[in-house]
Every structure is written in C-alpha cells, then in structure tokens.
Amino acid sequence: MRRIVYLVHTSVDGYIEGPEGEFDWPVMGPELSAYVDEVDEGIGTFLYGRVVWQMMASFWPHAEDLSDDPHVRRFAPRWRAMPKVVVSRSLPDPADGAARVLRGDATALVAALKAEPGKDILLTGGTELASHLAAAGLLDEWVIAVHPVVLGGGRRLFTRQDKRGALDLVESRTVDGRVVVLRYAAA
C-alpha cells in the first residue's frame, strides 16, 4: 500500500496563508529546496484539494516564464510530468488532462488511491483535505516547514479535529539558517 506524505509550509503561529490569503512569505532557500527534492524522490503521484490545485495549475505549467529561481526551474518539469489527482466536488475536469478529478466521498476515494500500486502520494499544502484525511487516519507522514513569520490570522494548518492523533517525531532539521522542518510519522 502506498503512503500519503503531507508537505506543508506554516508560520510560527500555525497559519498556512495570511489573513488575505497571502502565500508570499515562505522562502525556498537552497537547503529547503534540496530537502523537498529528497521528499519528492519517493513520490509517484501529487494529490491536491481544489484550492491548492488551482494555485498550482495557474503557476507550474509555465513557471519558467514567470521565475528564474533555481528551485522553480528544477521542479517545474517534474511537476508537469507527475500524475496529479485532485479531490473536489466542484472543479470541472481540466481540459488538458493535467489531473484526474475525484468526486464523492473523499475518504473512500483517497483510501482507494492509496491501495493502487506505485510510489507514494504527496499531498501538498491546503488544510481542508489534509484535515479530513488526518481525521480518517489516512495520512502516514507529515513534513511541516515552519517559517520564521507570524501571520496573525488566515487559514490554520489544521481544522478542528474530533480526536487526538499521536505522531512520532522522525526528524527535525534547521535549513537555510531560518526554517525548521519537522517530519512526523503516524504513531
């Protein structure tokens, strides 16, 4: 069975975007970029909720035209080539076939996705789908990059959970002299 790895950037006060939806505060320095590349090596599918998919799909297909950042240039071809799955009740099917859209019971659909053969699944960012999958016990690993910023509001890392979920700390690492990466596994 494939594992689901949840990779997310958060502020010190636990927000994944600012009060106005800003996501201009995470800094992908060379060490954090290399760490994300390491995580990506074991991944065979990118998984998104609708909101994060729309953000990713508006940037990565033509990212090299928008940025000369080394991380962007290295990751963009990988993003385009990777199979992508979006869980959404309202997203129309992408016209270019860039992603497969799953509609219906997210828990059952993602459990079936995990049961498919292949490499692990990477869920990137977002809070609703991640919170839903965490509550259902479907997340296997959390990779949380804590950036040195206080946003003071916005979208929380996780929505309220009905029960506690124990995690085992697998790794903690400071990268680029400013970001702390915490890696946890389901206990």
Give the gist of this structure:
It is built from six helices and ten strands, in the order E-E-H-E-H-H-H-E-E-H-E-H-E-E-E-E.
Protein described:
By secondary structure, this protein is α/β, with parallel strands linked by helices. It has one domain (4-11, 32-140, 167-186): 3-Layer(aba) Sandwich (Dihydrofolate Reductase, subunit A), CATH 3.40.430.10. The chain is built from six helices and ten strands, in the order E-E-H-E-H-H-H-E-E-H-E-H-E-E-E-E. The protein has an eight-stranded mixed β-sheet, sandwiched between helices. Strands 2-8 form a two-stranded antiparallel sheet. The longest helix is centred in the middle third of the chain and has 12 residues, at 70-81. The chain is globular, with a radius of gyration of 16 Å. The two termini are 17 Å apart. 28% of the residues are buried.
Characteristics of this structure?
187 residues, alpha/beta, Dihydrofolate Reductase, subunit A, eight-stranded mixed sheet, two-stranded antiparallel sheet, 6 helices, 29% helix, globular
SSE diagram, text form:
Layout lengths: L3 E8 L3 E3 L12 H11 L2 E7 H10 L3 H4 L3 H12 L2 E4 L12 E3 L3 H10 L4 E5 L3 H8 L5 E7 L7 E2 L10 E9 L3 E8 L1
Parallel strand pairs: 1-6, 1-7, 3-4, 3-6, 4-5
Antiparallel strand pairs: 2-8, 7-10, 9-10
Protein name: Dihydrofolate reductase
GO molecular function, one term: 5-amino-6-(5-phosphoribosylamino)uracil reductase activity
InterPro entries: DHFR-like_dom_sf, RibDG_C, Riboflavin_Biosynth_HTPR
